[in-house]
Amino acid sequence: MGVDGIAAFCKDLNVEPEDPVMLVVAYLLNADQNLEIKKNNWISAWASLNCSKIADIKKTLPTIREEYLGPKSPNFKLVYQFTFQFARAENQKSLSLDTAVEYWRLLLSDRFKYLDKWIQFVTTQHRKAISKDTWNLLLDFAETDLDAYDTEGAWPVLIDEFVDYLRGGA
Amino acid sequence: MMKGGAMVKKEAKMRIRAFPMTMDEKYVENIWNLLKAAIQEIQRKNNSGLSFEELYRNAYTMVLHKHGERLYSGLKEVVTNHLENKVRKDVLHSLNNNFLQTLNAAWNDHQTSMVMIRDILMYMDRVYVQQNNCENVYNLGLVIFRDKVVRYGSIGNHLRVTLLNMIMKERRGEIIDRLAIKNACQMLMMLGIETRHVYEEDFESHFLKQSANFYVIESQKFLEENSASSYIHKVENRINEEADRATHYLDESTEPRIVEVVEEELIKGHMKTIVEMEGSGVVHMLKNNKMDDLACMYKLFGRVTEGHKTIGEAVSQYLREEGKALVTQANDEQSQQTNAVTYIQNLLELKDRFDDFLTKSFSNDKYFKQVISGDFEYFLNLNPRSPEFLSLFIDDKLKKGVRGLSDVEVESVLDKSMILFRFLQEKDAFEEYYKRHLARRLLNLKSASDDSEKMMISKLKSECGCQFTSKLEGMFKDMTVSNTINEEFKNHLQNTGKSLNGVELAVRVLTTGFWPGQNAPAPIVLPRIPNQAFDVFKNFYLAKHSGRILTLQPSAGTADLNAIFYGNKKGTEEEGDNVRNVKKHILCVNTFQMLILLMFNTREKLSYEEIREETSIPERDLTRALQPLSVGKATQRILSKTPKTKEIEKTHTFSINESFTSAFHRVKIQQASARQGEAEPERNETRRKVDEDRKHEIEACIVRIMKSRRHLNHNTLIAEVVEQLNKRFQPSPLVIKKRIEGLIEREYMKRSDQDRKMYIYLA
User: Fold this and answer.
1) Which listed site, B146, B292, B454, B625, has its alpha carbon 20 to 30 Å from B58?
2) Is the pLDDT of residue B557 over 90?
3) Looking at beta carbons, which residues of chain A come within 8 Å of B715?
């Protein structure tokens, strides 16, 4: 199934393509960047969710939403980390900054209270692509208390710099 | 022998009487009275008429018949009586007149009489006393004497006061009766009965307290009036005096105690004040090289804890200031070579100075040695150019033309340099600089002696291991091999009859990995003849060593050119023939300059742009090559430049300066950066290379550690990396972190899923 198929699929489900739940779907289907989905994956994924018709899928959507995107869901991490290689262009090791910012807005708006400052920081000070390590650990960072932040800890350098940025009030 | 009156009269008939098994009261009473009288006589010093045997027997009898207690308590009573009513009275009378002597006499008498009394009552000592666990006769006497006489209210006080006053007087310089005090102290010691309690309580504790007070006051006075060194001498004197006092007439055991008091009051309480005294304290002593004073202070302060530490801190502070001053002044761009040499020279002198202090004043104390080393390490690394300077210094010593130092002297200077080297934290930067300077020396044939060079390298090797020096040794080898190649080339030319068109070629073949800074140089266009000569060599070499590639390094080569200067046209047409001063010279230039000058064989005038186009020499090198030739010293100006400004611009033109003169036939053109230091860009280059190398070393280290440990947490990893690399340089945790991230990116390792702080090695 290609891009158009996905678009149609979304329409059937009454879901916007930009809805984060589509990311979950992509994750479950193991889609790659180009949204190329193998038929086998398609079948096995929906089968594991007990869906055989579009209607079923529609019904299961809220559950999926809850399971994967809910604030306390442990699976969110998986989706979030998956998003990195999903959003990455081919042949690139890092994620371009603009794309990263977009996806961050999509996924982290309710989870990361410093999101805006973060975006401001990376777009003005860093301005380079984002590495996988930094991407992954940003989620951890979002979940840690700023006061408990350990500068000697194993955080990526960019996040260290961000904390300085926050603290220096720059 | 006088017979006692209470003897039982025998019957006329001689009968061996059975020993009375029981005694009646009266009998006992009689015996006791007999003994009592005897004791009293003894106390009155009238013992000569007494029968020892008789008295002993009577005492024996009493004890045997179980009347020991009566005897004992009776004895007690008699002695107490005598001491209270006679002896004490006498002593009290003498309170203001010969007190000590009287007391001493009474004591002696008491001792003597108690000995005799003890002898008489020895059986009681052996039997009754043992059985009843009470004091033996002699000790009993001591106790009574102590309690009834010595410790009797006014006597006790007066004794103490008298003794203390006398000592005070002596401290003030008066003469006193030492013997009297000695006797009194001995008495007190003995009254303690195998302990020193009496002496301590009645005398020593008060003595120590009084002394402490005395010295508190004295120390204040001394400090106000004296400089540090005279204060110290005064303290030493006082200590000796007190020790003396203790040994001579107090009890010996008091010596350490009183000395401690003096140390406490005169030294410990005022250590900082003494050390920091304006104009005479430690700093003053160091500045003025007062070795002896420092030695005295060291010795004195060694007596108290923290004494040396206090001195050490002052020394350290001073040394750090001095070092810092030396280190921060040498940042002038000009005349770098002199700067480097003086910089290091000054540091070496400073080190020598303090080593002197160490031996002469601090008796090579390990603590002070550490302090000095720590300080040197501190300020040496304050200046980031220290590694460079040290290398330049050594460079200077190893070059030709150094004012005839003998081999031994050279070695000793190098040894001292090694000491400084050990203090460097950025040893890898030093290595880089050393390589460059060595390369320059070798290529320009400036080494004074191969042996000295090799000696330096072996010193570095034993300090840092082979890895450090393998490249340096490689450079040497290249030089030797090159010489051989040149010989063989000469033979080759002879044998094959090839000609180089009058060019004498000497080639040095450098192995790329060993020599610094040689990356692919910009290819320049050689003039025809040198080019051909080089090709001949190239073919010759590659025939011998196929599979290798030779690249010409124009920045490192030199050329000797024969030059003819036709001189100015002198005179006017009226004078007839023009007189020309034709001069011939040999010009020693570098490769770039050779290219430029040869161009003028065919052309009169060339612009900067033209030169650049034809030779393809990069701009920077071209400017640097032209500078000494055209705008340098007059004795070097081979070329004339139009316009005659100091700067070289693209539009300027050059021509041969026909009126060039020089006193020498062979003219050596000094290079642009005349001093052997480095210009700013080169220094940056070296810095960049060092940083680059460090990145690789850190990464290699991380991988090595992770490979062997498999998984490790962040902080431990950082700590291990720092430790392993410490001998070369000191990486900051931030830099290491960046490298870790890089390695994660390249999938050499990853973070653990459970614990963000744990890293796992990916094979």
Assistant:
1) B146
2) no
3) 152, 154
Cα separation, B730 vs B34, whole angstroms: 97
Query: Cα–Cα distance between B381 and B726 in angstroms, integer?
Result: 14
Answer whether residue B166 shows pLDDT above 90. yes
Measure CA B95 to chain center: 61
Indicate yes or no: CB of A154 within 8 angstroms of CB of B744. Answer: no
Instruction: Count CB neighbours of B37 within 10 A.
Output: 15
**What's the rounded mean pLDDT across residues A13-22?**
70
The residues of B whose Cβ lies within 8 A of any Cβ of A are 713-715, 733-734, 737-738, 741, 744-745, 751, 756-757, 759
* Predicted confidence band of residue B668 (pLDDT cuts 50, 70, 90): confident
Rounded Cα–Cα distance for residues B399 and B64 (Å): 107
pLDDT of B754 higher than 50 = yes
Q: State how far the alpha carbon of B435 is from the alpha carbons of B414, B430, B441, B512, B660, in Å.
A: 16, 8, 10, 13, 38
How would residue B571 be classed by pLDDT, with cut points 50, 70 and 90? very low
Name the minimum distance, in Å, from the CA of A106 to any CA of chain B.
Answer: 24
User: For B717-737, how does the pLDDT look when each residue is reduced to its tens digit (9 = 90+)?
Assistant: 999 999 999 888 889 888 999
- Residue B615 scores a pLDDT above 90: no
Nearest to B207 by CA among B269, B150, B262: B262
Report CB contact under 8 Å: A133, B744. Answer: yes
A81 touching B (Cβ < 8 Å): no
Residues 6+ apart with CB under 8 A from B441: B395, B398, B399, B447, B453
B741·A156 Cβ contact <8 A: yes
Run of H or E residues at A80: helix A76-87
Residue A137 forms contact with B (CB below 8 Å): yes
Q: What is the pTM of this model?
A: 0.73
Question: Which two three-digit tokens encode residue B697?
Answer: 């070393």
Q: Which among A128, A155, A164 is the top mutation candidate for probing chain B, defined by the most B β-carbons within 10 Å of its own β-carbon?
A: A155
In angstroms, rounded to a whole number, what is the distance separating the alpha carbons of residues B71 and B121? Answer: 9
B79/B664: higher pLDDT: B79
Q: What is the mean pLDDT of residues A45-50?
A: 70
Chain A's closest residue to B755, CA to CA, is A154
Please state, in angstroms and rounded to a whole number, the distance separating the CA atoms of residues A129 and A92: 10
Whether residue B564 contacts residue B646, with contact meaning beta carbons closer than 8 Å, is answered with: no
Largest CA distance in chain B: 181
pLDDT tens digits for range B524-538: 888 888 888 888 888
For residues A101 and A123, what is the distance between their CA atoms, to the nearest angstrom?
9
Residues 6+ positions from B759 with CB-CB distance below 8 Å: A154, B706, B711, B712, B713, B714, B717, B740, B744, B749, B750, B751, B752
| ipTM of the modeled complex | 0.79
Kindly report the backbone phi and psi dihedral angles of residue A74, in degrees, each rounded to the nearest multiple of 5, phi listed first.
Answer: -75, -20
- CB contact (8 A) between residue B741 and residue A137: no
Distance from CA of A157 to the nearest CA of B (A): 7
Asked if B555 and B520 count as a contact pair (C-beta separation under 8 A), the reply is no
Residue of A94, A137, A157 with shortest CB distance to B756: A137
Query: At B1, is the pLDDT very low, low, confident or very high (cuts 50, 70, 90)?
Result: very low
In this complex, do A133 and B738 lie within 8 Å of one another by their Cβ atoms? no
Length of chain A: 170
Q: Residues of A with CB below 8 A from B698's CB?
A: none
Residue where the block lists tokens 């809850």: A66
Q: Give the residue with greater pLDDT, A144 vs B190.
A: B190
Is any Cβ of chain B less than 8 angstroms from the Cβ of A140?
Answer: yes
Cβ-Cβ contacts under 8 Å, B744 against chain A: 131-133
CA dist., res. B91 & res. B153, Å (int): 12
As a whole number of Å, the CA-based R_g of chain A is 18
Helix residue ranges per DSSP H, B444-576: 450-464, 466-496, 528-544
d(CA B220, CA B210): 16
